[in-house]
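Researcher: Please translate sequence to structure tokens.
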Amino acid sequence: MKHLKFAALALLGFLMVNTPADAASRLNEILSGGVLRVGTTGDWNPMTMKDPATNSYKGYDIDMMTELAKDLGVKVEFVATDWKTLVSGVVSNKYDITGSASISMKRAKVAGYSPSYFSLATVPLTLKKNLGKFKDWGDLDKPDVTVAATLGTTQEQQVKQFFPNAQKKIIEAPARDFQEVLAGRADAHITSNVEAGKLVEKYPQMAVVPVMEARARTPIAMLLPQSDQVWLNYVSHWIKLKTERGFFNKLAAKWQIAN
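Model: Translation complete:
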């Protein structure tokens, strides 16, 4: 019996010293390395926007991740990615976390999510001159209408779901779906209500189709390694604390996002 107790205690000691979650956590790697690596696409106004001339970023996500790095006591490094490789980048340790991304069950199969800090919905955009014929979702779901979306985004899946009868045009980054509408190669595209306002502001020839209601209201969160509970817990607690202290409300006001 004494031998069994000794063996059990020895095993417990071994497990406590060799806990995989502690040993392999990105949190420990970030703290020891002094750098938080953030995957960001740089093409989602006002969340993340890259200036090619200076190779610098600005936006809601950039401010958010700069604050997270500050609270961690480390530097922040923004790693360029695109929508189709956003998930694989965090899974393969190319970066420790991503900026904002729509929560989807497809992504959740391989990556973890932080708690959400705001939500968005999907709306269609077209050229102002087309508003006479496009007044609601059904007007776009016709065989002679082409609707664009960007590869790797949640809108890529939504455009197939919302418009089974329309022609679909899936655009690969760094090109963007709205550029197809501006160039006349697509009749409309769908995007978040967050980006829609910025596009209409930048391109006055574009307009949001006056649909009865936006679709697919979706929470937004950060992507992290799925199995790293230590890192997930840290970010979850950070979001909770920052929410209580009004950080996300201030960020939403700065970047004119309904929070």
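Researcher: Any highlights?
Model: The first strand starts at residue 35 and ends at 40.
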